[in-house]
Amino acid sequence: MLPVIFGRHLWWGGLWRRICLNQLVLSRQHLQYLHIRVGDRAELSRAFTQRDVITFSELTGDVNPLHLNEDFAKHTKFGKTIVHGVLINGLISALLGTKMPGPGCVFLSQEIKFPAPLYVGEVVLASAEVKKLKRFIAIITVSCFVIESKKTVMEGWVKVTVPEAPTS
Asked: Using an 8 Å Cβ cutoff, are 83 and 126 in contact?
C-alpha cells in the first residue's frame, strides 16, 4: 500500500497521520527574507600604519615588542615588526559588518590561521564568500592576502548570524 498525502496529513494503512512540514516551510520563509545567497562575495582593502599598530596595542594592552620595537623584531625570524593577527582579523569584522552580510550581523564562531606575517605598510585585501546558509546562520570563508606579493596572511571561516533584509 502506498501512502497518500493530503495537505499536512498522510493516509497510510487505513490511518491518518499528521506530518510536519513546518521545518521546510520555515526554511523557505527565512530564505525569502535574507539578502545574501551562497556564492556572494565581498572585499575590503587596507594598509595598516605603525600608528594603527600602536593604537591597537594601547587599546588592548598587547605590547609584545614583536609589534612595537624594531630593534627587538629585527632579531626574530620576521626581521621587522609585524601587524597583530587580531588587527588583521578586524578587517574581516569590518567587511562582514559593513558590506556582507552587513549591519546587524553577529560573529558566532571562527577558525582562522596566519600562514605568513603582515608588515606595516603592506596593502592587504580581505575577502569573504558565503559557503552555506541555514536559516539565519551563514558559514563564510575568509582570507586576507597582500595584494603586491599575493602572500596569504590570514585564512579560515566564520559563522555569523544574518540579519533580515532591510525593508524599505
From this structure: no
Q: What is the C-alpha to C-alpha distance for residues 66 and 84, in angstroms, rounded to an integer?
A: 9
Interval 86-108: pLDDT, tens = 999 999 999 999 998 888 889 89
Sheet containing strand 123-134, strands side by side: 41-47, 123-134, 137-146, 152-161, 106-113
The pTM is what? 0.72
For 4-54, how does the pLDDT look when each residue is reduced to its tens digit (9 = 90+)? 444 444 444 555 444 444 333 334 444 444 578 899 999 999 999 999 999
